Amino acid sequence: MKITAITVYQVDLPLKEGRYSWSNGNFVEVFDSTVVEIETDSGLLGHAECCPLGSAYLPSFARGVRAGLAELAPHLIGQDPCNLGQVNRVMDAALRGHPYAKAPIDIACWDILGKATGQPLYTLLGGAAQDDVVLYRAISQEAPDIMARKIEAYAAEGYSKFQLKVGADANDDIERIHTTRAVLKPSDLLVADANTGWTRHEAARVVGAISSLDVYVEQPCLTYEECLSIRRRTALPFVLDEVIDGPGTLVRGIAGDAMDVVNLKISKVGGLSRARLMRDLCVEHGLPMTIEDTWGGDITTAAIAHLARSTPAEFTFSATDFNSYGTVDIAEGAPRRVQGRMTAPDRPGLGITPIADALGAPVARYS
Ligand code: MG
User: Fold this and answer.
1) How far away, in angstroms, is 265 Cα from ligand 1 center?
2) d(Cα 80, Cα 292) in Å, to the nearest integer?
3) Beta-strand relationship, 3-14 and 20-21
4) For the segment 47-75, what is each residue's pLDDT rounded down to a tens digit?
C-alpha cells in the first residue's frame, strides 16, 4: 500500500464554557485544530487531528502543525502507511523535532493499519485491557468559589477526578485548592495542576499549605530540576506532564524517582507509536498515566480512547473526553462520556468518520 495524497483541514473548536484558563494568565476561547486525511492507492483513508493548547503552552502551535505538514508531506507520498516504523523514520529524517506536526501523520497511518487489518486500534495497541476508561475533568482557572461550583456540577454529571488549573498567585492557589477539596467526596480525586506556573518558593509555600489535604500536585515549575526539588519537599503524590516530552525524559524521570503519575499527551510525544512505547515503559515500571493530548475534538478523543482502553485499569489514572468541552462535532462514531467514563469504538482503526461539512474546504493538499 502507498500514500497517494495528504489533505489538511483547519477547524475552529469553540468552548462550551467560553474560555479555558490556566497558569500565567494564559487562556483560549476558540481552539484551532488541524485534521489530516491520508489517501492510499488501496482506497483506504486514514484520519487524525492535532490541536495544540494555544501557542504558549508547549513548544507547539496550530499554524506550526500545518507548516510542519507542508515540510513532511513530500517525503511521505509513496510510503507504505502500514509500515509505521519507516513512516516515523522518514519523518524524523526530514524534519528535526516538531513531534506535534508528526503526530497526525503517525495517527492517520495507525488508522489505515487498523482498517487494512479489520482491527480497532485498541487491539493493535496491545489489546483491550478494560471495557471503558475513567475520565478527569479539567477545571479552568477562576475564583475559588466559581471553581468549586463547577466541580460540584461536573461531579453531578458523573466525574470523580478533577484537575484544578492553578499556577497563579500562590495565596490564591492555596485558597483554590482548599475550597475545591472541601466540596468533594473523600473518594473523589483532586489534582492541582500548576502547568509550570510557580517558581520554587511559590511551589514550596503551596505544597506546605496543602500538605494535610488529599491532593495531587502536577508540574509545579518549568524545569525538571525545579519540579524534582519540590517533589523532594512534599509527601503529596506528584505528577509530571510538560517536562516528560518523550521516551528519554520519561526514562530519566523513572530513574530519578521524579513522579508517581505521568501525564502522557499523544501529540506532545509525536503520535501513537511513541505514546505506546512510553505507555509500555510506564506499565513496566509501575507508573500510572493520565492518557490524553494537548486538546482536540472527536478525532483526538478517539485516539485517546484507543490508547487508554489498551492500558490496564490500574495504570490508567485517567483519560480525557475533549470532545465534551467544545460545541462542534467533527466526526461520527467518536467516544461519548457515560457517567464519567468513555470507551473506544469497536470498528476498525480509530472507528470514526469525519463530518465533511464540519471540516469545510481543505487548506492544503499534497499529492
Ligand atoms: Mg497537566
Assistant:
1) 9
2) 27
3) unpaired
4) 999 999 999 999 999 999 999 999 999 99
* Mean pLDDT within 265-276: 98
Whether pTM exceeds 0.85: yes
Query: Ligand 1 centroid vs 156 CA: distance in angstroms?
Result: 23
CA atoms within 13 A on the CB side of 190: 25
Measured from the Cβ of residue 52, the count of other Cβ atoms closer than 10 Å reads 27
Report phi then psi at 128, rounded to 5.
-60, 125
- Residues recognised as catalytic: 165, 265
- Residue 138 CA to ligand 1 centre (angstroms): 9
Spacing, Cα 197 to ligand 1 middle (Å): 11
State the sign of the Cα–Cα–Cα–Cα dihedral 143, 147, 148, 149: positive
Looking at the domain that runs over 3-118+355-366, which CATH code has it been given? 3.30.390.10
- Residue 173 CA to residue 177 CA, distance in Å, equals 6
Residue 339, classed as helix, strand or coil, is coil
**Residue 255 contacts residue 90 (beta carbons within 8 Å):** no
Strand order of the β-sheet with 30-40 is 45-50, 30-40, 3-14, 364-366
137 bridge partner residues: 162
Cβ pair 90, 80 in contact under 8 A: no
CA of 302 to the centre of ligand 1 (A): 20
Number of C-beta neighbours around residue 61 at 10 A: 17
Cα–Cα dist 265/286, whole Å: 18
The three grid cell numbers given for residue 43, joined into one nine-digit string: 482506497
Q: Which fold has domain 123-353?
A: TIM Barrel (3.20.20)
Per-residue pLDDT band for 324 (boundaries 50, 70, 90) equals: very high
What would the pLDDT profile of 346-356 be if each residue is shown by its tens digit? 999 999 999 99
Task: Compute the distance between CA of residue 164 and CA of residue 329 in angstroms, rounded to an integer.
Answer: 26
Domain-wise residue ranges, the chain: 3-118+355-366, 123-353
For the chain, first and last CA: distance in Å?
15
Q: Convert 11-73 into a string of H (helix), E (strand) and C (coil).
A: EEEEECCCCEECHHHCEECEEEEEEEEEEECCCCEEEEEECCCCCCCCCCCHHHHHHHHHHHH
Cell of 229: 526539588
